[in-house]
Amino acid sequence: MANTRELRRRIKSTKNTAQITKAMQMVSAVKMRRAQDQALNGRPYSENLNEALSRLLPRVDIKSHPLLSGNDSKATGVIILSTDKGLCGSLNTNIIRTIMNARFEGNTLFYTVGKKGRNFVVKSGKTLTADFENPDLVIFRKAVQLTNMVKDSFTSGEVGQVYLVYPQFISTIKQEPKMVKLLPVEVSSVVVSDSLKSTATKNDTANNEFLYEPNVDALLDSLLLHEIQIKIYQALLET
């Protein structure tokens, strides 16, 4: 009889554990779906921002703008986006390998989001300029903080170029390391998607009649800064 009661107790305990596990699985699935939707839904906005920039750039003197022309500093700033924990395959390993394979000029200053990236910088004896916690909920303010920090370093001449390294979202089971140059903003990086190109072609005549307020230069200042903010924000979402 004692053995029977013990078996029933174990069966009940196993069922309770199964219920808890199922609930955790459902919560994780919802979080994963929400993160996936955020990562994918942000891309059209970035494409339209690129389209707006592509209309403005031909109207300005690129060499006269500090975010486009650059400076004489040989130092490099690198933003690393990583996770806080493992259990995500080779995601963090690929990010670190991408950084190690890159040949940055001069001294390199690192800005990290996520413990894995920070640990890599500290253990390898590199310069950790700033470290941010990996937020459970990605907010745009985090991207603004990072943007302001690297922009100040760039405009002051502390660094001559800034790169962003992050895991680009391909699918829920596949992420590929990607490195993009944030500063100085390269005109060639302002790429317009095919769908937007067709729309822009149809509106070429209308584009010539656009009035930019307060003026083209002021609007470009705002859009260039916002372009960097959006790139960092999108990378945070995809990480």
TrEMBL record:
Keyword Glycoprotein applies: no
Pfam family of the protein (one): ATP-synt
UniProt entry keywords in alphabetical sequence: ATP synthesis, CF(1), Hydrogen ion transport, Ion transport, Membrane, Transport
Membrane-topology annotation of the record: Peripheral membrane protein
Domain of life: Bacteria
Location in or out of the cell: Membrane; Thylakoid
Membrane-crossing residue ranges in chain numbering: none
Cellular component terms (Gene Ontology): proton-transporting ATP synthase complex; thylakoid
GO molecular function: proton-transporting ATP synthase activity, rotational mechanism
The UniProt record lists the keyword Nucleus: no
Family: Belongs to the ATPase gamma chain family.
Biological role: Produces ATP from ADP in the presence of a proton gradient across the membrane. The gamma chain is believed to be important in regulating ATPase activity and the flow of protons through the CF(0) complex.
Name used for this protein in its record: ATP synthase F1 subunit gamma
Organism: Candidatus Daviesbacteria bacterium RIFCSPHIGHO2_02_FULL_36_13
